[in-house]
Amino acid sequence: MSYPTVILKSGKDQSVRRYHPWIFSGAIKKIKGTVNEGDLVLVTDNKDEFLAIGHYQIGSIAVRIISFENVEIDGDFWKEKIKKAYKLRQRFNLAESDDNNVYRLVHAEGDGMPGLIIDYYNGTAVLQMHSIGMYLIKEYFIEALKEIYGDKLVAIYDKSEATIPFKSDIKAENGYLYGDSNIQTVVEYGNKFKVNWEEGQKTGFFIDQRENRKLLAHYSKGRSVLNVFGYTGGFSVYAMSGGAKVVHSVDSSKKAIDLTNENIALNFGDDKRHEAFAVDAFEYLNEIDGKYDLIILDPPAFAKHNNVLHNALQGYKRLNIKALEKIKPGGILFTFSCSQVVSKENFRKTIFTAAANTGRSVRILHQLTQPIDHPVNIYHPESEYLKGLVVYVE
């Protein structure tokens, strides 16, 4: 099959030759043929040498590469890609585990499928398409998921309404592409969580913090724990299961706090060790002098674009200064950034500056990232979006 051809400017092919999956609009010399957003295109260098095949889109990222080989892009191509992603999860005991039935099946560029996210929740696959190219071929994904999971697959839910590029003519609507599901309870390392993929943030649950939650449980025994930006209480449940003395959850969303309380009750019944507060994080931190010896800061992305990076770093600094000032001596701080544009170096430097502002002795115990079902493409460092530090505060 012949595709329109994107020809790159001289010298602008180097990143593609290093297998980076994005081509920016400024690298394009010309396009041969008629191309619409979402179309497959061939990418060549200035001498017409084949480089890759990708989805064309309007914007600064003009092509998202799906293959560096000149192969036919059809249903079998996508089925093999998704099977390969499944086998990776299977190999590391995520896909068929007795104490875990929630994981990310496809992590966009990390699995060689830019623009596609698939999360698996105890029989329901939740899809998020971030490009028109992926959205237009969702039938391929439905067929692949049916084949991979068989009778285990109860439903497929499309949650692309908020993620399809806003400049597009396509108006996506969230809804079931296959089946229907009332199964909204999942198990992660034996802990139970109610997940609302229809109304919750992202696809319903922050799967990417699974290993970091497990680590938190290890440090929680006998401690007074504060979970700030707690969302649905993932870290709070693990703190409780780890033997925390007290666990307090804080989120500005009353709906999130209600779900946190449900998740605590699901695992521990009416356990008086836990309380939840629907209040502003900064206001709450102002009032906690020496009350907690373990604090989790897991805020939403402060920056989604480079033009607001400075303000985001200032926000992280203020937040961490407050926590470092208020935590008990001998306390442990788990602090995170999920902003893709904030590098590991920037984040660590920000926590260093926050620590220096408090004058307290602070030591790094762990440097954290995303789990194996959110793999980082070594040729695409931007896919390493989650970074965290565990620090000991004297």
What does this structure look like?
The chain has 394 residues and is of the alpha/beta class. The protein has 3 domains: 5-67, PUA domain (Archaeosine Trna-guanine Transglycosylase, Chain: A, domain 4, Roll), CATH 2.30.130; 75-187, Transcription Regulator spoIIAA (2-Layer Sandwich), CATH 3.30.750; 206-393, Vaccinia Virus protein VP39 (Rossmann fold, 3-Layer(aba) Sandwich). The protein contains 10 helices and 20 strands. It has helices at 14-17, 75-91, 132-135, 138-149, 210-220, 234-241, 254-268, 281-285, 309-326, 344-358, and strands spanning 5-8, 22-24, 28-32, 40-44, 50-56, 61-67, 102-107, 116-121, 124-129, 155-158, 175-179, 185-188, 191-194, 224-228, 246-250, 274-277, 294-297, 331-337, 362-368, 387-393. The radius of gyration is 22 Å and the shape is globular. The termini are far apart.
Strand order of the largest sheet: 16-15-14-17-18-20-19
- In whole angstroms, the N-to-C terminal distance is 65 Å
Total domains: 3
Shape estimate = globular
Give a short account of the largest sheet: 7 strands, mixed
Computed Rg: 22 Å
For the record, what is the CATH homologous superfamily label of the largest domain? Vaccinia Virus protein VP39
Q: From the 3D coordinates, which CATH architecture of the largest domain would you assign?
A: 3-Layer(aba) Sandwich
Based on helices, strands and strand pairing, what is the structural class? alpha/beta
Q: Work out the number of β strands.
A: 20
Order of helical and strand elements: EHEEEEEHEEEHHEEEEHEHEHEHEHEHEE
> In DSSP terms, counting alpha (H) and pi (I) runs of 4 or more, how many helices?
10
Specify the helix fraction band: 25-40%
Low-confidence stretches: none
Average residue pLDDT = 94
Which fold name corresponds to the CATH topology of the largest domain?
Rossmann fold
